[in-house]
Amino acid sequence: MSSSFLQHLVNGISLGSLYALVAIGYTMVYGILRLINFAHGDIFMMGTYFAFFGIMTFHLPWPLAFIVAIIATALLGMLIERAAYKPLRDAPKNSLLISAIGVSFLLENLAIYVFSGKPKAFPNIPLFADTLGVAGVKIQFISFFIPTVTLIFLAILLYVINHTKLGMAMRAVSKDYETAMVMGIDTNRIISITFVIGSTLAAVGAIMWGIRYTQIQPMMGVMPGLKCFVAAVVGGIGNIKGAVVGGFILGLGEVLLIAALPNMTGYRDAFAFILLILILLFRPTGILGEKITEKV
Length: 296
What we know:
α11 packs across α12. This protein has one domain: ABC transporter involved in vitamin B12 uptake, BtuC. It is globular and about 60 Å long. It is built from twelve helices and four strands. The mean pLDDT is 92. It is mainly alpha-helical. The longest helix is centred in the first third of the chain and has 31 residues.
């Protein structure tokens, strides 16, 4: 295995892990509400700013700043659900979709107004900037840390979903919202918890994105948000494992394609949408998705 291929492989896995973390949030919300939460990428963006100001403005130690940022982002996700989605619970799905787009625009413009549109450099964390020698290639520690964190969170989430009462309730609400409510499940609580979990994962991904790519700005969540949506669709939206598979496929495909065809670097974002089109044409339910019949 050549050193350059190993470098690209590690970079692809690292990028795919970030896509996977954020894609899980998309897929969980869709699984519960059948809603594409287009504000999810902007919640991701807010997570980077919370961490940035925690370190730079409030001078918190970086571990504490990251914890505060994750909690703040989780609370933001819950607030958005309560304010923008809960009042429309019984409204047509189009109303929820429009509300999600409105929240996305609100967060972007609020960030520009409050934080300014000028890009900022995410604080350097020496621990993650250290390099490790693997097969003669020096690779940043963060590139190994990101996939590890992703797999740990995936394992915890799958355990919660499959082996706890909370997970049982979430699966019930996902399967049949009305029946779950009749059976005594507090559906509003379950939906709020789903948004909290999704936003928490987005915050973790956002912090690692800031460490990995350093520059942050108010529109930074748009393209990663769209790509993570594509990853969720590729893997099978509504399926947590599928979101992770889709994230890795997208990240690896993007990096390895550019490595093989350097002249196509300017078109790297197009890869995600070409993949989306192909999946919708030949496997509309995604790789691990199941066909869902919408109720009339």
